[in-house]
Design brief:
Number of helices: 5
Number of strands: 3
Bound molecules: zinc ion
Largest sheet: 3 strands, antiparallel
């Protein structure tokens, strides 16, 4: 019988044990889970807090540099710093999102007016062609 391996979900932190990698799919997120490079028995010997820390560290170390920065060990003991960083980041993302929305609505308007102009030009061409046909 194959040994069990420990897998975790990098999105929600759920962990479970599987024999086959193909079965390691997070039932909450429906994504493939990541293998933990540790023997099943060693993992079982950890208490819940140690497991949480191990998986948290793995999720953080495979995340973006920004997340790594705000989750660096020193910052983790300073919740004010984390809240400050996250608040700034959320504000920045909201502003960026607003700018993108404005760009999209500007593009919509531009495209519509271009379309109208194209239609008008097409009609002009049609008229001219009709005139040409009549005069020939
Ligand atoms: Zn998940």
């Amino acid at each position: 019988m194959r040994d069990l391996s420990v897998y975790y979900c990098s999105q929600c932190g759920f962990y479970a044990y599987y024999q086959l990698p193909k079965n390691a799919i997070c039932h909450r997120c429906d994504i493939a889970m990541t293998l933990i490079e540790m023997r099943y028995q060693d993992f079982m010997n950890l208490d819940y807090e140690q497991r949480d820390k191990l998986i948290s560290d793995q999720i953080i170390s495979s995340s973006t540099p920004y997340i790594q920065k705000i989750c660096k060990p020193a910052a983790l003991h300073n919740q004010r710093e984390i809240v400050g960083c996250l608040t700034q980041e959320v504000t920045r993302l909201e502003e960026e999102n607003q700018k993108l929305n404005q760009t999209v609505s500007w593009m919509h308007q531009t495209i519509w007016s271009q379309l109208k102009r194209t239609r008008t030009l097409e009609r002009e061409i049609q008229k001219l062609q009709n005139k040409l046909k009549k005069s020939s």
